[in-house]
Amino acid sequence: MRTLKYAILGLISREPMTGYDITREFNSNSLANFWYAKHSQVYPELSRLTEEGLATCQVVIRGKRLEAKLYTITDKGRAELLEWLMECDEVPPTPKDVFRLRVYFSDLMTRQELRGHLQDQLEKHRRKCRYLTDIMEKLYNSSAPPVGTAACGDFMVLEGAVLRENAYIQWLVNCISRIPDESSETADEAGADTVSPK
């Protein structure tokens, strides 16, 4: 399935856009949290959409002399987009996570090395969570917009991203809590070397 096809149709269903506008949307704070595409992917897909009669292209002037191609969804394109929106997907395979793979083989690390890895990831995910939360606060004051608006869809996806990061953070905290700290390890070693008086 050409998922990019439907992502672009969705964008131009809201308003006519140029290839530059579409690429910028894919790199925005909203879409980039769950879907992105490079300009080298966007422009060939736009050509296919026009060939298939799903979008029209009109040359317009941007600025004084700069020509740009403005893409608009057709009735056929809107019908295909709505059909795709109504499809029910199976749960997708679990995405690959290199860090989780390292944790899987953490028996080859020292406790200190493992703790360092976990704490490093914890700080990074906390920063990402704060970043996403700040976006929600800035754009929506952490309150969901009315259902049926484009803003509501954006809010729901952002909310899902925040919950995902919070779950990852909790998992990291749980992992770290299971690693004995150095003071307890030292105490255990000292106790093992102590000879009880008879």
Features:
single chain, three-stranded antiparallel sheet, mainly alpha, 9% strand, 3 strands, 8 helices, 198 residues
Strand order of the largest sheet: 1-3-2
Shape: elongated
Q: Radius of gyration from the CA trace?
A: 25 Å
Q: What fraction of residues sit in β-strands? A: 5-15%
User: How would you classify the helix and strand content by structural class?
Assistant: mainly alpha
Tally of extended strands? 3
Mean pLDDT across residues: 88
> How would a crystallographer describe the biggest sheet?
3 strands, antiparallel
How much helix, percentage-wise, in residues? 55-70%
Give, in order, the helices and strands: HEHHEEHHHHH
Spans of at least 5 consecutive residues with low confidence? 189-198
Give me the number of helical elements. Answer: 8
Note the gap between the termini.
77 Å
Ordered list of secondary-structure elements with their pairings:
Blueprint: H1 3-14, E1 17-18, H2 19-26, H3 39-51, E2 55-62, E3 66-73, H4 75-85, H5 98-104, H6 111-140, H7 150-177, H8 182-193
Antiparallel strand pairs: 1-3, 2-3
Characterise the protein shown here:
The chain has helices at 3-14, 19-26, 39-51, 75-85, 98-104, 111-140, 150-177, 182-193; strands at residues 17-18, 55-62, 66-73. The longest helix has 30 residues, at 111-140. The protein starts with a helix and ends in a 5-residue tail after the last helix. With 198 residues, it is mainly alpha-helical. It has a 3-stranded antiparallel sheet with strand order 1-3-2. Helices cover 61% and strands 9% of the residues.
